[in-house]
Amino acid sequence: MDLLLLLKAAIMGVVEGITEFLPISSTGHLILASELMNFWSKEKSDVFVVAIQIGAIAAVIYEYWARLWGAATGMFTGEEKGRRLGFGLILASIPIVLVGLTFGQTVKDFLFNNIAVAMGLIIGGLIIMWIEKHPPQIKAKEVEDLTYKDAIWIGLIQVLSLIPGTSRSGATIIGAMFLGVSRKAATEFSFFLGIPVIIGAGLLDLYHNYKIFTTTEDWVILGFGTLVSFISALVLIRALVAYVARRDFMVFAWYRIFSGLLILLFAFTGWKLW
């Protein structure tokens, strides 16, 4: 067993767990971390980046099991809030599934690079700043209060997250806030919306590329990274919900802009960190 590779997988898992639900782009950070650490081959690393996100989203299922079960059963029992959340999540998932299946591989081939990540970070940071300075009137305080129309619009906005650096969480949270959803409800809906999208994308990518993992060690590395992402994401989810209850996202906007500019500086000057 390559212990150095296992350590790098653990670091990637921590990066995923910490960044998946923050509006700073988990995929972008994973791509950058992979390049900085020279983690695995390009083919294996690209699949790893997508697949370990399943660990992070499993943390959401674990943390919110009762509410998710209520949404699932509500679609059949007719319980109003559960039904609205359940069908809302389905409607919001349709756009990215259709676009992802059609153009997902093209995006992966052409935009999984540091320049695309940098531009996505900067533009997203500017949008977060704008929405924080011009907050709309809140019309949905809890996630169960979202209308089907809100869900569809958030789903359309989520399509932008196919571009690395944009951030699925950032797009859905800020998009929901723009529609008048409270910060807490927008964050939780983003958590829930990631379940079908991330699990579907991870399993589909594994299905298409599982043959590149040729040894038992390869699967151990992948499984270990996924486990670490689950544990670190579970900690982050609880911390983030507590954070958004009393603070805004401006710190993440500045972080995105600074990171994007730094990435561009290194990309165009050819400087190396080590």
Automatic annotation (TrEMBL):
Organism name: Acinetobacter equi
Catalytic activity, reaction form: di-trans,octa-cis-undecaprenyl diphosphate + H2O = di-trans,octa-cis-undecaprenyl phosphate + phosphate + H(+)
Highest rank taxon of the organism: Bacteria
Molecular-function GO term, any one: undecaprenyl-diphosphatase activity
Broad enzyme group: hydrolase
GO cellular component: plasma membrane
Pfam (any one): BacA
HAMAP family the UniProt entry points to: Undec_diphosphatase
Major subcellular location class: membrane
Topology in membrane: Multi-pass membrane protein
Extra information: Bacitracin is thought to be involved in the inhibition of peptidoglycan synthesis by sequestering undecaprenyl diphosphate, thereby reducing the pool of lipid carrier available.
Subcellular location: Cell membrane
Keyword Cell wall biogenesis/degradation found: yes
Transmembrane segments: 47-65, 85-104, 110-131, 152-177, 189-207, 219-241, 253-271
GO terms (BP aspect): cell wall organization; peptidoglycan biosynthetic process; regulation of cell shape; response to antibiotic
InterPro entries: UppP
E.C. numbers: 3.6.1.27
Signal peptide extent: none
Keywords per UniProt: Antibiotic resistance, Cell inner membrane, Cell membrane, Cell shape, Cell wall biogenesis/degradation, Hydrolase, Membrane, Peptidoglycan synthesis, Transmembrane, Transmembrane helix
Name listed for the protein in its UniProt record: Undecaprenyl-diphosphatase
Similarity section: Belongs to the UppP family.
Annotated function: Catalyzes the dephosphorylation of undecaprenyl diphosphate (UPP). Confers resistance to bacitracin.
